[in-house]
Amino acid sequence: MSTPTAPIGILGGTFDPVHFGHLRLAQEIGQALKLDEVRFIPSGTPPHRGSPQASAADRLAMVSLAIGDNPLFSVDDREIRRAGTDYTVDTLTELRRELGASRPICLLLGADAFLDLATWSRWHELFVLAHVVIAHRPGFAVDTWQARMPQPLAKEYSARLMQQPLAVHLAAAGGVAVAPIAALDISATLIRDGVGRGASPRYLLPDSVLDYIHSKGLYVQDINETR
Ligand code: ATP
Fold first, then answer.
1. CA torsion angle 20 26 28 29 (round to 10)
2. Can you give the CATH number for the domain in which 169 is found?
3. pLDDT band for position 51 (cuts 50, 70, 90)
4. What is the CA radius of gyration of the chain?
5. Ligand 1 within 6 A of CB of 189
6. 9 Cβ below 6 A of ligand 1
7. For residue 142, is it within any domain?
8. Ligand 1 within 6 A of 23 CB?
9. In the chain, how many domains are there?
């Protein structure tokens, strides 16, 4: 039985499409940090990038298929239901209100996303609302992080870094933890580009998601786009 105060993990993303990089991140950090749940939150209109290729409904459907019956995972469609741009700080504010002041919340981020954090809306507030847990990602070696972080982010990182990641259980928010996970050099971009070229992305993502992509004809380049 889980306790109501056990930490919850939040994994936001465009999931265009969801792949094994996301699933291993959620599974490994969920287990290593003894999280009660890892909640996938697909974004509707992401602020940091162009529009996703697949519709919000398709990306949500793919996440639901990918998580299947994994008891650790759940999906939350709040950002897709929300009108306008999705800011993580707004989502975390809502979650904090719903989960109460003392429940630890862990915002799970790949290293690429963390290094970009200082460009996010009201990013300092994220540390008031949640812990930030950074997952290793190929192409973003840990020993280069400090050099790649803008100074204000480097300052927060060193002040908040917890040597023991399980310390996320001891406070509701405010810490930074680093989680080494299996290095899977998979990205949604790689998958979209592959499908667009007619190459199979099999073994980069669950078969259920691949079947969905094929059945809906997702990521196949429109012949008119290439003219
Ligand atoms: P794209 O290629 O379209 O930019 P992506 O594969 O990076 O997409 P997102 O949906 O943008 O996927 O990522 C959601 C979160 O998952 C981010 O925090 C990202 O850093 C993390 N993530 C994605 N793929 C991996 C991976 N292979 N290893 C570790 N973290 C990952």
1. 150
2. 3.40.50.620
3. confident
4. 17
5. yes
6. no
7. yes
8. no
9. 1
